[in-house]
Write a structure and sequence with these properties.
Blueprint (H helix, E strand, L loop, with lengths): L3 E4 L9 H16 L3 E6 L9 H13 L9 E2 L4 H13 L3 E3 L4 H9 L8 E2 L2 E2 L21 E3 L1 H7 L4 E7 L2 E7 L1 H7 L4 E3 L7 H11 L4 E5 L3 H13 L6 E5 L19 H6 L4 H8 L2
Parallel strand pairs: 1-2, 2-3, 11-12
Antiparallel strand pairs: 4-7, 5-6, 7-10, 8-9
Helix pairs in contact: 1-10, 7-8
The structure holds glutamic acid.
């Protein structure tokens, strides 16, 4: 099978050194294996995505010497695929509508009998307020957030699940347990009210649609990968190999974020830095 990697930025701010590291690593992996490199614009959050950031992404990646296949996948055009997957999950009986606001969830998890609120990859672990004890039989609601009933999802899957973590010449199998999914992750949102999908669902479906064999992304997404493996299993999709790379930090040790404009590639370009400078700063 041809190796295929991707870079999947959200056009919600400038690409910074951390993005350059991720994109160059993925591109280098594809090139070394004579494989494919794909780009995906993760613009499901239409309130934050901007065409000018998307244009800047293309410009910065080309400047870094990266070439990608066309057409570029854009998540904002993929709602029919997301809807089809949500219908499938709804029919499997593993989704339920959630009526809670953030404040409701914070209040429920702060109740004294609950002990210390537990945090999962998506923030507070959902206390289960809207969870029903029987699978819904009605048609899937389109205008409500839908949560994954993690206990039911886990009960339907063949364990053990896991994924291969590969990088720097080593490979290791990372097992995932039903217990850690139920206690440490809980009922995550798979369709948000405002977008009809979620990061987790879209990423899983798009990696499969783009036939991605190797996902290269930062260690900050390691916990999300366990969720992705579960969603892949529920939708009968293959699990790619993952490489969660080290994070690029500023001189105080803080992970770079979109707001760190000082490390924006565009700014460094305008200040006269070369691609070699960037490579040497990020240790490539
Ligand atoms: N769109 C995500 C980001 O910009 C990356 C998602 C991924 O690589 O899976 O952080």
């Amino acid at each position: 099978m041809t190796l295929a990697t991707r870079f999947a930025p959200s056009p919600t701010g400038p690409l910074h050194l951390g993005h350059a590291y991720s994109a160059l690593l993925a591109y280098g992996l594809a090139q070394a294996a004579n494989g494919r490199f794909l780009l995906r614009i993760e613009d499901i959050d239409l309130s934050r995505a901007r065409p000018e950031w998307e244009a800047q992404i293309y410009s910065d990646l080309a400047w870094l010497g990266i070439e990608w296949e066309l057409p570029v996948m854009r998540q904002s055009k993929r709602q029919p695929a997301y809807d089809a997957a949500l219908d499938k999950l709804w029919q499997r009986g593993v989704l339920y509508p959630c009526y809670c606001s953030r404040a409701d969830i914070a209040a429920a998890t702060a109740a004294p009998q609950e002990g210390a609120p537990m945090l999962g990859p998506d923030g507070l672990i959902y206390p289960g307020t809207c969870r029903t004890d029987h699978p819904p039989t009605t048609v899937r609601p389109r205008d409500l957030p839908l949560r994954l009933n993690m206990a039911w999802a886990c009960a339907q899957l063949d364990w053990p699940l896991g994924f291969t973590e590969e990088g720097s010449g080593t490979a290791q199998y990372v097992p995932i347990t039903a217990d850690e999914m139920q206690r440490g992750v809980g009922d995550i949102v798979l369709a948000r009210r405002d977008m009809g999908t979620s990061y987790h669902l879209s990423v899983v479906l798009d990696d499969a649609a783009q036939h991605i064999t190797h996902v290269v992304r930062g260690r900050d997404l390691l916990e999300a990968t366990a969720i992705h493996v579960v969603v892949q299993a529920l939708l009968d999709l293959p699990t790619p190999v993952y490489h969660h790379h080290r994070l690029i930090r500023d001189e105080t040790g803080k992970r770079l974020a979109k707001r760190d404009n000082a490390r924006a590639i565009a700014l460094m370009r305008s200040e006269g830095h070369s691609v070699k400078d960037i490579q040497s700063i990020i240790g490539l």
